[in-house]
Design goal:
globular; about 45% helix; seven-stranded parallel sheet
């Protein structure tokens, strides 16, 4: 298999939809998960049932040792990485900033920011022509929250995604001459269970009226943008922040 993709947080939502679509496009896919092995295996089963190649790999992106092990397993079981989707991310319960604990803030940044940077670091070592690679593509999953701020709910989450935007821009420029393209997507209100984990299971329905298209988006709609950015069709696209937000 020539194209090898790692999707972090690939067991559900946008990550799962991306894994399935990328496999349909010919990628061998490593579906990373932190705790829900059954969900990851279900994604792998769906890919294999359709004739694709995939495997589920456990690893918490906030733990460097686990990230290193994750990438070693990809090397050993699928081959040299050519694509990375930094999708793993968390939100916490809705809160105002004055009520946020340092523990919450550290976990948010460890997963959403540092985890993505460390995964990109390891991907670059395998993709960059400086390291004997043949190039590749990295797509970071940001959020429309990076420009909206998420006041009264998830300001810390929005700040973490703002960091991802800046990281995308800087890294894209850093590795552009080494065969690596780096882009980000900014999903808006998307129907996934991340809202329930933040205590607002009906958030998309309740805020849909604020979206010019008058609806929430689907994980599959975001996956289409991500997989396009991974593909040869996006060969001259790097440093882009693509809005997938229905106009919001």
């Amino acid at each position: 298999m020539d194209e090898v993709l790692l999707v972090t947080g690939g067991s559900r939502g946008i990550g799962a939809a991306t894994a399935v679509l990328a496999a349909r496009k010919g990628f061998a896919v490593a579906v990373n998960y932190t705790r829900n092995a059954a969900a990851a295996e279900a994604v792998v089963h769906a890919i294999r049932a359709a004739g694709g190649q995939a495997l589920a790999l456990q690893g918490d992106v906030a733990d460097e040792a686990q990230v290193l092990q994750l990438f070693r397993e990809v090397d050993d079981k699928l081959g040299r990485l050519t694509a990375l989707v930094n999708n793993a991310g968390i939100v916490d319960r809705t809160s105002r900033v004055e009520d946020m604990s340092v523990e919450r803030l550290k976990r948010m940044m460890d997963v959403n920011v540092i985890g993505s940077i460390v995964c990109a670091r390891e991907a670059i070592k395998r993709m960059s022509t400086r390291h004997g690679g043949k190039g590749g593509a990295i797509v970071n999953v940001s959020s429309a929250a990076a420009r909206l701020g998420a006041p009264g709910q998830y300001v810390d989450y929005a700040a973490s995604k703002g960091a991802i935007d800046a990281f995308t821009i800087g890294l894209a420029k850093e590795v552009a001459a080494e065969g690596i393209r780096v882009n980000a997507v900014r999903p808006g209100l998307i129907e996934t269970d991340i809202h329930a984990s933040g205590g607002l299971p009906n958030r998309v329905r309740e805020l849909a009226h604020q979206v010019p298209m008058q609806r929430g988006g689907s994980a599959e709609e975001v996956a289409q943008a991500i997989v396009w950015l991974l593909s040869p069709e996006a060969s001259y696209t790097t440093m882009s922040l693509i809005e997938v937000s229905g106009g919001r």
